[in-house]
UniProtKB/TrEMBL annotation:
Residues 70-240 form the Tyr recombinase domain. This is Tyr recombinase domain-containing protein. It comes from the Eukaryota. One of its GO terms (molecular function) is DNA binding. The lineage of its organism: Eukaryota, Metazoa, Ecdysozoa, Arthropoda, Crustacea. One of its GO terms (biological process) is DNA recombination. PANTHER family: CORE-BINDING (CB) DOMAIN-CONTAINING PROTEIN, PHAGE_INTEGRASE DOMAIN-CONTAINING PROTEIN. Keywords: DNA recombination, DNA-binding.
Length: 240
């Protein structure tokens, strides 16, 4: 799980965490928010702003590691992605999963590993998906919310040692499983519907897939929504 939530090197010096705290606190103060008592949505937006500004994954990991130690709960509720990742791994080999479960697993692990919004997960450009020995690269079909100009941002997800919860291996399995269903009408987006005629899906469907998986893992979906994969990923303590 640590590897899933850490896409770069973890900084451990006190000065680094102090710098990350100053950045976070300044963000909150400028918006009239208490940095020691903020909401999941607010933290989510802070980390999304860092990502949208082009900060590296290692920089974002430093900030979310610092926040996890400072803000162990969001809105009074603990959100431990270990529960969800363990559930994903318990489903078994990707190749043996029905398309519905494999779709759900792919969406959840990508959401945890990438910090993408559900609308962005739904707009992953299928034709841009490129695998390498170290991971997978892809772009979206449109600029990210925080991107105002320039080329489409390339997103990299690293491979993990544990195949049961590796987002890269899961995406590979998903690409293979959906290959027979690809045609001119659904070749643009990564995700397609689980049933015929396997059309490209909307962000509402991705949200429902993730929420369904959270519920199956035992997460209270009346408290945590599909968007919580970003907040949970951001808030997890990254001690190694």
């Amino acid at each position: 799980l640590v590897e899933l939530l850490v896409a770069g090197s973890r900084a451990s010096t006190l000065s680094t965490y102090e710098s990350a705290w100053r950045t976070s606190a300044t963000w909150c103060y400028q918006r009239g928010e208490d940095p020691l008592s903020t909401t999941l949505a607010f933290v989510l937006e802070f980390l999304a702003n860092l990502h949208g500004a082009g900060k590296s994954y290692s920089t974002i990991n430093v900030h979310r590691s610092m926040l996890s130690k400072t803000l162990p709960h969001f809105e009074g509720h603990p959100w431990d992605p270990n529960v969800v990742v363990s559930y994903m791994a318990s489903l078994g080999e990707n190749s043996s999963l029905p398309l519905s479960k494999l779709s759900h697993k792919t969406a959840v692990l990508l959401g945890l590993a990438s910090l993408l919004r559900v609308s962005e997960l739904a707009s992953i450009n299928f034709q841009s998906v490129t695998f390498s020995s170290s991971g997978v690269n892809f772009t979206l079909l449109k600029p990210r919310k925080a991107q105002h100009s320039g080329p489409l941002q390339s997103i990299f997800i690293p491979s993990l040692r544990e195949p049961g919860c590796c987002p890269v291996e899961t995406i590979k399995a998903y690409v293979d499983a959906t290959a027979p269903h690809r045609n001119h009408s659904n070749i643009n987006s990564l995700f397609v519907s689980c049933n015929k005629p396997h059309r490209n899906i909307t962000s509402n469907t991705v949200s429902e897939w993730i929420r369904s998986s959270l519920a199956a893992a035992g997460i209270d979906t009346s408290v945590f929504s599909a968007h919580s994969t970003r907040g949970a990923s951001a808030s997890k303590a990254l001690a190694v």
